[in-house]
């Protein structure tokens, strides 16, 4: 197991290098001058040049990239050009808000997605199955930002029962709408995967054997079928925590949620490469860690899965 984990961590190195290089090049070729965004209009060329020199923006991109990677190896994610604060401090202020929102969305996805998928599979070709299939199709096809604004109009402006922006005092009421919007597409995919997995498992011989032994349908579904059907579902849900944080840019922007997605969005508009790089890199680290944890969790759901040619106890 330790060799497997070490190999997976080594495989993450080229991924991190590739992500940093792509993002750095994209930020470099974007139109606009970060130095001009730090001064008022009409600033002299001398002032702009001094700002570029102070932040290393006058160097070729490969020199800037090399310096950034050298600092990154020492744990330095850089300093925000716009806010003149260490990027890690900015991320520490906003990442907890994004993680809390993503955790609520993940809970919605897991509970509603799995329940809907199980019901749809057990009640195949019934009204409930058609309803789940239709609902998931609509959610997948619906743009998240449009769905988020629809929730704001209905529940916030028309009915006035839930806040439509900000985090307020941090009470649960502020989480409801952004969490539902963020979880919508992921919930639809979870329900579809659960349904397909359950249908495959229900037709297995050991399920027919369990029914032949006289076990109740509830026990057959929950104890025997669902546990084996959850393996691909756990994969999706486990990786979705990172995905929910990463895909929250639109949701956090629409709801003015003080999370890292909104910070990255504003940093792109303000041409603040260190913030964009730092926020994205931390997200990549989260993806890699969750991916590894999901792979390891397979062993506890299905002992037939092996690592390094040996069973994991």
Q: Could you describe the 3D structure shown?
A:
It is built from 12 helices and 2 strands, in the order H-H-H-H-H-H-H-H-H-H-H-H-E-E. It has a two-stranded antiparallel sheet with strand order 1-2. The protein has a domain at 91-266: MetI-like fold (Orthogonal Bundle). With 313 residues, the chain is mainly alpha-helical. The radius of gyration is 24 Å and the shape is globular. The longest helix is centred in the middle third of the chain and has 36 residues, at 87-122.
Quick check: average pLDDT? 81
The ordered string of helix (H) and strand (E) elements is HHHHHHHHHHHHEE
Query: Could you give the order of strands across the largest sheet?
Result: 1-2
Provide the low-confidence segments as ranges. Answer: 308-313
Radius of gyration: 24 Å
Percentage of residues in DSSP E strands: under 5%
Summarize the structure.
With 313 residues, the chain is mainly alpha-helical. It has twelve helices and two strands; from the N terminus they run ααααααααααααββ.
Task: Name the descriptors.
single chain, 313 residues, mainly alpha, MetI-like fold, 12 helices, 1% strand, globular, disordered C terminus
Which secondary structure elements does this structure contain, and how are they paired or packed?
Elements: H1 2-29, H2 45-55, H3 61-73, H4 87-122, H5 127-141, H6 144-158, H7 173-202, H8 205-212, H9 217-246, H10 248-254, H11 260-269, H12 273-301, E1 306-307, E2 310-311
Antiparallel strand pairs: 1-2
